[in-house]
Amino acid sequence: AQAQIAAATLQKPTVFKLSAGDVMTVENGTLDTTVNINGTVQAINSATLKSNVAGTVEAVWVREGQVVKAGQALAQLDTNDARARATQAQQQTKAAKAQLALAERQRNNNQTLVDKGFISSTALASSDTNFAAALANLDAAIAAQGIAQRALDDTTVRAPFAGQVTQRYVKVGERLTVNAPVMDVVDVAQLEIEIALTIAQASHVQLGQVAHLNLESNTHVVNAEVTRINAAVQTSTRSVLAYLSLPPNSARVGEFVTGLLTTGQATGVLVPRDAILNDQPVPYVQAVSDGLVKHIDVTLLAMGRVNGQDYAVVT
Fold it and tell me: pTM value?
């Protein structure tokens, strides 16, 4: 008897009491279509400064976190060898100038003697050859002096642009080889985010569109603008890379960012995203009709936001 009572109870329809917040009337409207994006903040201008010459570190004038100006001296390598080579090249240039002056006087003297008939033109040709050789030696010496001077200048590591030091790799007294890393400098005034889009998403993304981003270092929503879109598809991921510029000093290099990129508008039947259920093969919504809850299959045409809330345009 108890089993029969329980079975009869199960046959009775379940009654739900819905509040005003549980029900809404579906209406036509317009939403801003969006794309969920994420990426990492990176600097447009960043560089790992390396030593162009081998030498011992004599001084390092900056540390991590310090702001530097373009051309500012950051570190100094031993200059003894480079300065000696620069002095040697300078003296060779002086010697080449003296040889050129002597060859020029000899040529002029021989020209006068030829004009007066005291010597043959063969002697004049020889002096012309000596003059040309002396001039070439001077040009070579000047070039060698320039190379030596650049090597001397390279013993001072300078900032290529204004920015901030994020990593220092050397200490005073260390011996560096050619191309050894010295420090990293980034321009925090020009930041961007690289995002990966599917090919379908990329077809709706255009320059100038605005994304609303959530950053770990900022409690407020930060707006970023699409400034570049790669024309090629990445072969490994089949994605298209796009780049969004951030306001100056709005984020930290390397932090992770999530947000929504507004790509346009769509008009149609609007349904809240959380009202669309996906526990069946086809998405559906629960509709109240004549006091009964019915499941109605829907097709998602577009997704986006209305007044800050997630909505979808459905059939």
Answer: 0.64
